[in-house]
């Protein structure tokens, strides 16, 4: 039944599938050529206005969600969020990065690298948790930065989020094909179509496109059903990881752990900067606040609980590998498979491939879910057409936003190889994490330290954070390996600064 209009006439709800000008260009400046010319002549003023304008909590929580026309269904609990955390974070990275960094940089001390990265990641988790409890909306980092640092920073962040969504999904889908062929005991490119295109774009991957499409379809049908499927896949993945850990300890040789620091402390922290990316993906949990029954309770439990367990799992994996095989003998490209072969468990390589495959499946599922909610809120703010903000009345999911993720990602996954995609990811991820830390500094202390008598602490603290941010982002002009090292360490420093900043600033201001 439609609702009643002002004159007593029944007003039928608008169709979800519509393509009007108002859905793509709703602003007044696009209503006619005259208004467009007027707006164009005011570009400088408008840019200056948006450069310094900020949103607020009430607008993000109360007003913007109305632009989706329908509410997302509140169907998630802390239990669902913990499993979404597992699904979003635990992918193939733990199987790949552990072997590479143990062999190349850290040796048996790789476990300390995972501890350092885990602590750093947890500090970022605290930033996201604090924001998501106070601003429980689907926009995640975009909404938080729009409130604290303004529209311009939020606009840059939106571009990074879109880049991360498109490229990240495509990269995981391409990796899925590689591990699937490994499970079938075939060469990694055997299921790809060879063409005469430029190197790096000449191996078409229709399987990656199919996997992306299936994940997106499930995410569009129902958040609750996606959660159930994520449970199943994550349980299988965790069982495989548990088997790997137990089997590795059964075949452990403690003498393999000597020397423990073959590359010194420098190697430990170099490895920590790389394995930090195995903890990525937790930010997707914050985007599900609108679908969580009790955000103030469930999100902290889901985020902090899942990341705590994941850190323990990663550290156990990191200890087990060099105990099973001498770090100098580890194969950087297939560490666990070759290690199991060395102790007579050749068949275990199929379990490793299955675990990685299941991990990437859940990463795709939860990643699609989270990125679609980012896009929904970006569209609510009219930084992209508001058509992408619409929530379907029956499914309670943002179908249009999900399509915006899967179509470009599918095109990238079809044509682009992993080495082309991987170089684009790390900088955008670190940019968002570091800006989140700066935003939390502003949120905590801007009101407290905005008076003249307290300017010194605010100035010193935030200048320090901006210098660190500058240093990290300057690394985009350096080679890939250096970028990862600089970015990872800078991200850790900013996160630590955020969580210590109150004591520092109060001391300087005499509070």
Automatic annotation (TrEMBL):
Q: Where is the signal peptide?
A: none
Which cellular compartments is it found in? Membrane
GO molecular-function term, one example from the UniProt record: L-lysine transmembrane transporter activity
Q: Does the keyword Protease apply?
A: no
- Key word Transmembrane present: yes
| Alphabetical keyword list | Amino-acid transport, Membrane, Transmembrane, Transmembrane helix, Transport
Membrane topology label:
Multi-pass membrane protein
- Return the InterPro entries for the record: AA/rel_permease1
**TM region positions:** 76-97, 109-131, 152-173, 203-221, 228-251, 263-282, 303-324, 350-376, 397-415, 421-442
Q: Which biological processes are named by the entry's GO terms?
A: amino acid transport
Q: Name one GO cellular component term.
A: plasma membrane
Q: Which family does it belong to?
A: Belongs to the amino acid-polyamine-organocation (APC) superfamily. Cationic amino acid transporter (CAT) (TC 2.A.3.3) family.
PANTHER family tied to this protein: CATIONIC AMINO ACID TRANSPORTER 5, INNER MEMBRANE TRANSPORTER YGJI-RELATED
Question: Could you identify this protein by its name?
Answer: Cationic amino acid transporter C-terminal domain-containing protein
Tell me which species this is from. Prunus persica (Peach)
């Amino acid at each position: 039944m439609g609702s009643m209009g002002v004159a007593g006439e029944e007003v039928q709800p608008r169709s979800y599938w519509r393509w009007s000008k108002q859905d793509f260009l709703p602003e007044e400046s696009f209503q006619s050529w005259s208004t467009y010319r007027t707006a164009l002549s005011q570009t400088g003023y408008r840019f200056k206005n948006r450069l310094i304008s900020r949103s607020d909590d009430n607008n993000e929580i109360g007003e913007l969600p109305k632009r989706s026309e329908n509410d997302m269904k509140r169907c998630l609990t802390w239990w669902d969020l913990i499993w979404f955390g597992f699904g979003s974070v635990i992918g193939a990275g733990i199987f790949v990065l552990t072997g590479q960094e143990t062999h190349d940089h850290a040796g048996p001390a790789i476990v300390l690298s995972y501890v350092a990265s885990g602590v750093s990641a947890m500090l970022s988790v605290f930033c996201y948790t604090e924001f998501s409890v106070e601003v429980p909306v689907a926009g995640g980092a975009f909404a938080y930065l729009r409130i604290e640092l303004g529209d311009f920073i939020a606009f840059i962040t939106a571009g990074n989020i879109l880049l991360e969504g498109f490229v990240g999904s495509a990269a995981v889908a391409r990796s899925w094909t590689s591990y699937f062929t490994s499970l079938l005991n075939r060469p990694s490119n055997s299921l790809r179509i060879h063409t005469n295109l430029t190197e790096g774009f000449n191996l078409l991957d229709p399987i990656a496109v199919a996997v992306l499409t299936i994940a997106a379809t499930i995410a569009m049908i129902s958040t609750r059903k996606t959660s159930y499927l994520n449970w199943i896949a994550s349980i299988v993945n965790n069982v495989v990881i548990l088997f790997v850990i137990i089997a590795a300890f059964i075949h452990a040789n403690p003498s393999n752990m000597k020397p423990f620091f073959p590359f010194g402390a420098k190697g430990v922290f170099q490895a920590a900067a790389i394995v930090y990316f195995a903890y990525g993906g937790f930010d997707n949990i914050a985007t599900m606040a609108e679908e969580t029954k009790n955000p103030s309770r469930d999100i902290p439990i889901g985020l902090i609980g899942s990341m705590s367990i994941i850190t323990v799992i990663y550290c156990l994996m990191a200890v087990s590998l060099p105990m099973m095989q001498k770090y100098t003998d580890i194969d950087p490209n297939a560490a666990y498979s070759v290690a199991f072969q060395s102790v007579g468990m050749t068949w275990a390589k199929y379990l490793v491939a299955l675990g990685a495959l299941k991990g990437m499946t859940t990463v795709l599922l939860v990643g699609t879910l989270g990125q679609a909610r980012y896009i929904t809120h970006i569209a609510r703010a009219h930084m992209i057409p508001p058509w992408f903000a619409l929530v379907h009345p029956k499914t309670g999911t943002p179908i249009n936003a999900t399509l915006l993720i899967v179509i470009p990602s599918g095109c990238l996954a079809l044509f682009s190889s992993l080495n082309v995609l991987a170089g684009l990811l790390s900088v955008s991820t670190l940019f968002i994490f570091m800006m989140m830390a700066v935003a939390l500094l502003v949120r905590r202390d801007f009101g407290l330290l905005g008076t003249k008598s307290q300017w010194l602490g605010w100035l010193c603290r935030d200048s320090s954070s901006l210098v660190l941010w500058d240093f990290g982002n300057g690394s985009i002009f350096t080679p890939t390996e250096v970028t990862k090292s600089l970015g990872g360490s800078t991200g850790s420093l900013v996160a630590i600064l955020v969580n210590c900043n109150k004591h520092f600033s109060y001391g300087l201001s005499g509070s």
